[in-house]
Design a protein that fits this description.
By secondary structure, this protein is an alpha/beta fold. It folds into 4 domains: about 270 residues, 3-Layer(aba) Sandwich (Rossmann fold), CATH 3.40.50.300; about 80 residues, Penicillin-binding protein 1b fold; about 160 residues, P-loop containing nucleotide triphosphate hydrolases (Rossmann fold); about 55 residues, no CATH class. It is about 40% helix and about 15% strand. It contains 24 helices and 23 strands. The strands form 5 sheets. A 7-stranded parallel sheet has the order 3-6-2-15-16-1-17, with helices on both faces. The protein has a 6-stranded mixed sheet with strand order 8-9-10-11-12-13, covered by helices on one side. The chain has a 6-stranded parallel sheet with strand order 18-23-22-19-21-20, sandwiched between helices. It is globular and about 80 Å long. About 10% of the residues have low confidence.
């Protein structure tokens, strides 16, 4: 069923790690740990495990960029299976929120919902209809969905020879929330012209044409979306609902009554507390939603009423993608627990899962307290960490630096005594309380690894590459010292990554290097995700030679052209300079045969000592393996990217299933000129990526913000317009303080008397 298609096989110590994982899964072990150093082929090892165990698999990642990368690799490795990509709107857009201190309400962004929805529908449709599904997604997969049973019940099967009237079929489609139209058809539409019925499912790039004859359905064709030329012909077709949140008519009406009752009770409560504004706001907003639900069967933010539509009691968890995997396993694999979850970069992904519930609750609390949403919105929530762990029958934690939660969880499920150095960590993979308080001094990761059995390890790279050489240097004159090192790499057509502690310092270093004639650029959290991707591509292509960043140059960053990683303030203790962070950052230089790392610090911290010790030990093991097997290290050869391709993928039509890739998303592609503009940016120097003329939305303060404007109505009006644009952009990137400052300035400009 799951068949891996690859020109190469396991090498180095991959095979023994894969065998160990497969044996553990077959023996019923609930949690496994794969420690794979950077460049050891963890994705390929995942694929081999999937092929061996033959189970539907969910691969979780901590961010959508890495998830997309893994999805593309898995699509190429499993061209004959269903490889899906599942993210949430919240991975791309600011969710609905209210900031009381600024009296700032941020509405839910709907710009790309159609494209995201298409990917999500495709995933769900595959899970309910075929056994060979691999889904790559972010931790947003723990957000709410309709129950799988509802999705399965609310569908329509049409087959050749079916005796039905076209009008009856249209009515059934409308019952699945499809829009009836007589003109141009788009996703989610149904159109009847004579004896021809066209329907376009949200999950597909190509509409379906159903032709009727005297006896009923005569032909079912898949057509090209523009020309309507037939592409394929089916005997049977399965039509899923247009919306995720579906229910029976009876349950739907009961849900509306429940919403009405909750609204009345909440309004009464607000009024009893003297909160008339909140009461009025809630009634107006909810009444509008109820009207939309009555008229069209859906509304903006319908997921906030999911508790009523699912008929769940208060506090009970919502259904999510894991329930669809359980249903798929029960339907095709002989048991609801017959599926696998792989958590990539588990040391950051697992804490993220644990933190999502609290973050969602905090955001919802403001919405509920100030009359924007009913209290039932709380129950449209992500899973708690304990619910998440209870749902998953078997999971592999994958990381080059497994976290303490994963190590303790492995010890617990295998019946080992939990080491003293892990007793301060929450048990059950974060689901239960720790026995002791966090100690002042902690044990190193290497110490903990030696005390726990059963870890599958990959330290030998198939390419023969060694861990990079590490050198510690003083902070005195560090920037000038780095400049000379950079110039040496540039002469060899190699790239450099520099990691610092603050956004401001990252920008200052990048701009200094630029003034010194180095093509440099900074990379930090204020830069949009799509732009980060293009910056990294520009580095690989040589449009820039150096990236200066903070903590974005770590997990999953695959840049074989990088031969030098420089870490400023390496001796500072804390999250950005702990043992795991240092090892992850050091690993960015491990894909190049000339890889080296410079740690700038005036002392050697315990974290530095532990990271250096591990790296030196692994270099020794790797070097001996190469000598014993006659292997010469070779830099990883990776196809160079194309500027703008990721943006085209995400905004115009992305590779879908298999190596060939079907187009599953629809939108206008950026023009050729726009893509050239992306490339051109990197010929201009550090910081210009975020100027006001960006092809993409600028994400930092444009140059014009501070310019003085004469007291002229026309010029003032133009400035107000530009300030409003910047205010909305600031709000979208969660920079609420900046948005409020801009709002106040706009108010002053608009109320200035001449």
């Amino acid at each position: 069923m799951f068949k891996l298609d690859s020109d190469y096989d396991a090498a180095g110590d991959q095979e023994q790690a894969i065998e160990k994982l497969v044996d553990q899964i077959h023996s019923g072990q609930q949690r496994c740990v794969l420690l794979g150093v950077t460049g050891s082929g963890k994705t390929f090892a995942m694929a081999k495990v999937i092929e061996r165990v033959q189970l539907p698999t969910l691969i979780l990642s901590h961010n959508k960029t890495l998830a997309r990368q893994i999805w593309q690799e898995m699509s190429n490795l499993f061209p004959h299976n269903s490889v899906e990509y599942f993210v949430s709107y919240y991975d791309y857009y600011q969710p609905e929120a209210y900031i009381p201190g600024r009296d700032l309400y941020i509405d839910k962004e709907l710009q790309l919902n159609e494209r995201i929805e298409q990917e999500r529908f495709s995933t769900v449709a595959s899970l309910v209809s075929r056994p060979d599904v691999i889904t790559v997604g972010t931790v947003s997969t723990i957000y709410g969905l309709n129950p799988p049973e509802v999705f399965q019940q609310n569908h329509l099967r049409v087959h050749v020879g079916q005796k039905t009237d076209p009008q009856n079929l249209v009515r059934e489609f409308v019952g699945l929330q499809y829009r009836r139209t007589s003109g141009e058809i788009v996703r989610g539409d149904v159109r009847l012209r004579g004896e021809v019925l066209d329907v376009w499912m949200p999950s597909r790039d190509d509409p379906i044409r159903i032709r009727f004859g005297w006896e009923g359905v005569e032909r079912i064709q898949v057509c090209e979306a523009v020309s309507w030329e037939p592409l394929d012909e089916f005997e049977e077709v399965w039509i899923h609902p247009r919306e995720f949140y579906m229910t029976s008519e009876e349950s739907f009406n009961e849900a509306l009554e429940d919403i009405e009752k909750e609204l009345e009770d909440r309004v009464d409560w607000f009024e009893s507390k003297g909160k008339d504004i909140e009461a009025h706001r809630l009634e107006q907003r909810t009444r509008f939603d109820l009207e939309m639900l009555n008229e069209v069967g859906s509304c903006k933010g319908v997921e906030n009423y999911s508790m009523h539509f699912d008929r769940r009691s208060r506090g009970k968890r919502s259904f999510c993608l894991l329930d669809f995997f359980s249903s798929n396993a029960d339907q095709f694999h002989g048991g609801s627990d017959r599926y696998l979850v792989i958590m990539d970069e588990s040391h950051v992904t697992l804490p993220q899962v644990g933190g999502m519930h609290g973050g969602d609750f905090s955001r919802k609390k403001n919405l509920v307290d100030f009359g924007f949403r009913l209290p039932s919105a709380f129950d449209n929530r992500p899973l708690r960490i304990d619910e998440f762990q209870d749902l998953i029958p078997r999971m592999i934690y994958v990381s080059a630096t497994p976290g303490e939660r994963e190590l303790r969880h492995l010890a617990e499920v295998t019946g080992q005594e939990v080491p003293e150095g892990l007793m301060h960590i929450d048990g059950g993979g974060g689901a239960s309380k720790a026995q002791i308080k966090k100690p002042i001094s902690k044990h190193s990761m290497e110490e903990m690894l030696q005390k726990i059995d059963g870890i599958s390890t990959m330290e030998i790279r198939p390419t023969g590459l060694l861990d990079p050489k590490i050198e510690v240097r003083s902070t005195e004159g560090q920037v000038q010292d780095l400049l000379s090192e950079i110039n040496q790499r540039v002469e060899k057509d190699e790239r450099v990554l520099v990691t610092v502690m603050t956004i401001k310092f990252a920008e200052e270093v990048a701009e200094y290097l630029e003034r010194m004639g180095v093509k440099a650029h900074y990379l930090h959290s204020e830069i949009d995700t799509l732009e980060r991707t293009e910056i990294i591509k520009a580095l690989r292509l040589g449009l820039i030679d150096v990236i200066v960043g903070i903590n974005l140059l770590r997990e999953g960053l695959d840049i074989p052209e990088v031969s030098l990683v420089a870490i400023f303030d390496a001796d500072k203790q804390g999250f950005l300079r702990n043992e795991r962070s240092l090892l992850q950052t050091i690993g960015r230089a491990s894909r190049n045969s000339n890889g080296s790392v410079i740690l700038y610090g005036d002392s050697v911290s315990p974290a530095m000592e532990a990271a250096i010790s591990q790296t030196v030990r692994r270099r020794r093991v790797q070097s001996k393996f190469n000598e014993d097997n006659g292997i010469s290290p070779k830099s990883i050869q990776k196809e160079l990217p194309v500027m703008g391709s990721e943006i085209e993928d995400l905004l115009s039509g992305v590779a879908g299933k298999g190596a060939e890739g079907g187009r599953r998303m629809v939108a206008k592609a950026p023009g050729k000129r726009g893509l050239e503009g992306l490339t051109q940016k990197f010929r201009l120097g550090a910081g210009v990526w975020n100027n006001s003329g960006s092809v993409l939305e600028n994400v930092s303060q444009p140059d014009w913000i501070e310019e003085e404007v004469e007291d002229d109505t026309g010029e003032r009006g133009e400035l107000v317009s530009r300030l409003k644009q910047e205010m909305h952009q600031a709000a979208e990137r969660l920079d609420f303080e900046r948005a409020a400052e801009l709002r106040d300035r706009i108010f002053k400009l608009q109320n200035t008397t001449n």
